[in-house]
Amino acid sequence: MSTSRRGRRTALLSALTVPVVALLLGASTEATAAPAASPLSAREINAVNTDIQANNHAMGSQIRRVEGDQSTPETKAAAQQPQPAAALPNQVAATVAGMDVASYQGNVNWGNWWSQGKRFVWTKATESTSYTNPYFAQQYNGSYNQGFIRGAYHFATPNTSSGAAQATYFVAHGGGWSADGKTLPGALDMEYNPYGATCYGLSKASMTAWIKDFHDTYHAKTGRWPVIYTSTNWWNQCVSGDFSSTAPLWVARYASSAGTLPYNWGYYTVWQYTSSPLDQDTFNGAYDRLQALANG
């Protein structure tokens, strides 16, 4: 996306009088209008909608597109139960409920989700080096003020710029980390290419190098290793490297269990177990271990 186009989109977004492309999830969202800088024509609003649809992809959107969502009320209930992995037999005795959001949720009613037992959230901050979530401040700061342990995530497009460039952009636009006990390390969202070839036209070795570039740059800038979000099917098709010794795994699988994990991870830290009515997650441990992840 050109600089002029990005500037035009930013100006249009700042002038919106209603949330754009927000999902109306009953009590889970608020349709609170931001103060209008100037009225927009229908043509301008449509241009913003088109741009968001072309340049903004929520976490798991491409996994759901390719792999489907087989979650049911029964599988969602099962996801809330401890599921110790072979690497940690009988050691996981608790879980913590969480969620992740993007611009599609608009202004989120954090009190509602808190009352439903959610205690952590990651919100989308960036995609590539051209997109920032226009609702990021409300989602990131609003959840924090409600009491959530919160973090930010970056939707990767490995064919558009280097891992270092995208990590730098992410940190500069909300993806940093602070040792306040309530901020999670940033998450790197690695999933199917929404624009074309599954692995973005990269070999497994090249994709591994790209992820390492992001992973190392993020660590250099924040002192934390990023959480890696992915599905086992995508990872095993596109990546050959091993990040299990540094990066906590956030696995996506919309079924009754997290299933087989990506290469060499012995257990998952977070499991995204459904995308309905929005992305919901479970932390694999007790609340004090979630706090430990935030504290580093």
From TrEMBL:
The molecule here is called lysozyme
Top-rank taxon, per record: Bacteria
Q: Which family does it belong to?
A: Belongs to the glycosyl hydrolase 25 family.
Q: What does this protein do?
A: This enzyme has both lysozyme (acetylmuramidase) and diacetylmuramidase activities.
Q: Which GO terms fall under molecular function for this chain's record?
A: lysozyme activity
Tell me where the signal peptide lies.
1-33
GO CC field: extracellular region
Gene3D superfamilies under this entry? Glycosidases
Tell me the GO BP annotations in alphabetical order.
carbohydrate catabolic process; cell wall macromolecule catabolic process; defense response to bacterium; killing of cells of another organism; peptidoglycan catabolic process
Write the Enzyme Commission number(s) for this entry.
3.2.1.17
- Reactions this protein catalyses: Hydrolysis of (1->4)-beta-linkages between N-acetylmuramic acid and N-acetyl-D-glucosamine residues in a peptidoglycan and between N-acetyl-D-glucosamine residues in chitodextrins
Renumbered to this chain, region (Disordered) spans: 65-85
Q: Which UniProt keywords apply?
A: Antimicrobial, Bacteriolytic enzyme, Disulfide bond, Glycosidase, Hydrolase, Secreted, Signal
Q: Where in the cell is it found?
A: Secreted
The UniProt entry, under Pfam families, shows: Glyco_hydro_25
Q: State the InterPro entries in the record.
A: GH (IPR017853), Glyco_hydro_25 (IPR002053), Glyco_hydro_fam25_subgr (IPR018077)
